[in-house]
# Entry
Amino acid sequence: MKKRMLALTLAAATLTATALPAFAAEYDGSAPITDEEGATVSMLATNSWYSTVDMNKADVVIKVAENAGVTVEWNMIDPTTYTDTVSPMLAAGTDLADIIYLPDLDENQTYINSGMFEPLDEHWDLMPNFRAYLDEHPEIEASLTAQDGHVYYVPVVGLPDNYLPCLMYQTQWIEQLGIESPTTLDDFVEMLRAFKENDMNGNGDTTDEIPMSIMSDFLPQMFGWAFGMDLQSGFYADEEGVVHYGYYEAENYKNYLTFLNGLYEEGLLEMEFTSLTRDQITERFANNITGVTFDYSWQMSQLYSTQFVEYDPEVGGIVVGVEPLSGEYQGYYSGTNPVKGIFGVNKDAQDLDLAIKFIDYAMSEECQTMYAWGIEDLSYTVDEDGNFNYTEQALNDNNWLQQVGINPPNLPYHNDAAATDVLLPTWHVETDKKLAESSHSPWPFIYATEDESEEIQMYLTDIQTYVQEMHIKYITGAESLDTFDNYLSTLESMGIEDLLAIKQGQYDRYSGK
Amino acid sequence: MNDLVTQKGIVIMTKKGKNGHAVLSKDEKKRLRRKVWNRDKYLVYMMIPVIIYFLIFNYLPMGGLVMAFQKFKPGKGFVGIFTGEWVGLKWFRRFFKSAYAWRLIRNTFLLNFYSLIFGFPIPIIFAICITQIKNKFLQKGAQVITYLPYFISTVVVVGMMTNFLSPSSGIINQLIQKFGGEPINFMSEQDWFRPLYVISGSWQSFGFNSIIFVAAIMGISPDLYEAMTVDGANIRQTVWHLTLPMIRPTIVLLLIMSLGNMLNVGFEKVFLMYNEAVYETADVISTYVYRQGIASTNYSYAAAVGLFNSVVGFALVSIANRVSRKLNETAIW
# Structure
């Protein structure tokens, strides 16, 4: 009897202990998150995209840890190899950091189903900042909620409509031709022909102009919409809510390929488009031998326009973004989902509560201000009306500002439109505001159930390989469009119909049917 | 025991037994063992790191092959490998049903086959040529120059190819245009992938691979050459009747070893060279495993495809070894 009483008491004690985690009362979302000496949290994340910037030394990153009162053991990996490095680490699942930036958005719930990450909604008492953020943004909470109803990840949030990849024209050439900047496919082709035939750069050689320089990855989103397809996401729903796969559209996709094949045959789309790099395009603008490109909006004022000696940011851009091309269908730019990346908390973290509190603090308003503006009095100042202003140095030296650590990819930052706008010249901001209106929302982010993810994994990789391969072959004419019916039936035999049925189910679930 | 006695360098007094074999007393055996150990111990020590290397990097990971028969979930660590849900041959069936199985096997095989056909004889011919050079300085110089490319990283080699072969700015295409030809988009044309892969691979490795043959040729006794000269043989006859037969064991050995790598194509080079336009001839098993395994996290499926690759490779080397023993009386095991 006595023994049983003891056991009961012990059980009760354990229950209370789990129900009321230590420090719960002390942490209210503001720093410091612990008063313990030498508290450490380990984190695995990407380093900066800028090769000249090391996030380990960034002021903002150091300040966040300092405020929180913890030592952060960073393991930062180059973003270009992040997936290849981290996927095997996650698969092995041992010796992982407390907080992990995932290599993808875990759409197939691979990691969620394997139970590696702590369900964060069971710790709302430790996450006042995150909870408040989700209350303000129910759509983000909806897309972060997994099939089992739990929230596992803290997001990096981007701007869905602003600073998207867009079409850019060399405005001097257009002025020279004396034409309106083209917004339809037909006018566009006319312009390319003019670029090709004339001596646009006035060096006396009519053959050195390359009308259009585009990295092949951008082709689908550049032309897909004008043919009524979202080739960027691949899957998209029409107005009736029926899901399509753009690369499996009998009519529209064939028209798209015919058009691009025409451009290629005529030499308007160059032979080398499959291997073209941003460096090569930059060089071409520097030599003034190309007139059209398609790239991230950011590059127009930060990279391409600056290649021209006569460029003056006050006056206006030379390589400038324009409205999307329309054909038979209305053109758009492909918007992005607001959730750009996710952080998970390792179930086996050394100090689970501390890790949860740290990631919660790292997404607080206080930290978001630092992510957007840097360090007060170093990279920004606040005037008496409470307006934020970058310092001289921050405005003039983008590389330095990156070194301070704005938009740190290793912490859950939110892109701030206001802070981005002041960094860019006025003409660029105005262009962006105009183009943001022609963005189209992408395929929504929807978690797959376990059955779905198995089916998706079975079909999707092979289908994508085939589709990418044939995309290029049809454009270059290595495969004749006469075989297009074969292409469709091959896709069918590869299981595209089953995949479409799954995606339809997901979409219906998402749109609440 | 008997074998040990006949080994070079060990001289030991033995009695002959009934059947003519040496009979050693216990004491003699002990002495013999110690002597052999004293003579060879450094060789054994030198082997230890190699053994450890193979244990850690080649034998230990074989345990993970279990994954190929399971539905692997990430994050379970080493234990997870042995506790996954058993699915039997599911992944193998899926691979053979997939649209790409045949193409992957064909590409992997052909890339290696052509590399072997064109790549294997070149170092032998080169080694024979270079050993004919009497000027030591010239000989060494030629050797060093030809084996240096071996040490250039694959990334750089592929980068050089992309630059030289570029249709707009590459030197090769500018030459073609000078002579009135049309530029060829080498890196994006599927018919060009295999030649480029084989030629660049040969260029990079023939100097290095010839080292072994040069050593083998140097090992042939000069007396034999003298005898050939006395008998009035010309260079062609000397090479055909003396040099080649003498280095035959080396050639066969290396040939068997390269057959073992027949389905083991260098991943990074294909990965760096290929693009969607040339998948038809360039996509090989290892790049497919990469796309399925690491890029799409289908670890079990990728493990099954990789295992299939290894099993076929092993079968090939076994067959080659058997054939060689029958025909040549030279074999690795």
Q: What stands out?
A: The interface with chain A takes residues 72-78, 80, 94, 98-100, 162, 166-168, 183, 185, 187-190, 275-277, 279-280, 283, 291-292, 294-299, 301 of chain B (CB under 8 Å). The first helix of chain B runs from residue 2 to 6.
